[in-house]
Amino acid sequence: MFAFIDDHRQSYPIVLLCKALGISASDYYAWRRRPLSRRAEGDCVLQRRIAAIHAASRGIYGSPKIHAQLQQEGLACSRKRVIRLMRQAHVCAKRQRCFKRTTRRNPAHTPAPNRLEQHFAAAQPDQVWLADITYICTAEGWLYLAAVMDLFTRAIVGWSMADHLQATLVEQALLMALGRRRPTGNVLHHSDQGSQYTSDLIQSLLAAHHIQVSMSGVGNCYDNAPMESFFGRLKTECVTAPFATRAEARLVIFEHIEVWYNRQRLHSALGFLSPATFEQRHYETFPVR
Description:
Nucleotidyltransferase, domain 5; 12 helices; 5 strands
């Protein structure tokens, strides 16, 4: 009750709060003069750090990732304690919204079979690449984002943005991935059956690099769930309202992918490491020969 009064004393008179809770104002002031216990002091330190981590995560971290971050910083505490302190500080994660996705197939093109079959696991980098396209709303019209994700690290290894949905949008994202990663082993490229991915341009590019092709079933978003999840998080975390221009959207999305998501954002599927850190630790354990 004393803590409640302390939290609301800027909004209501202390005497009124004490009267409403059936305690005396003198008892409240005595409580305020009492030194904090070691546990309470520790809560204050943790609560400030929790608020800082939450703010640095752009408001998207919930208790699992905040708890993981605290442990990585050497601040030992239980998950239940983090939840309690977050509730007291009114800190909560942004909720991921649902977004409608539209795929346009070309009936003249023959899609590849689903070779991935929702087996979202890879033994090493550049073994499985997931690819997809999403739509970003701006006042100037749609901005389309094509992305390529490495399933092992969950990093976005290639991306491209344009004001059109031509196959060259996907081509540029794939060329970026090929240029950055230079895969030497067998790669499985998984996408939906959109006309861009079944086009001669993309199929020829994949064949030229000896990349095996896999495609989702018709209308089944779960066949490419990690990419769908990435796009959902992107729109929740940085596309909170229509952008004024496509140029503004490009800058924000570039920063989200290259600065935040690939290098800083903790990923639950990676043991609460960022994609860059997860890949670095993998190569420290299994050096490339």
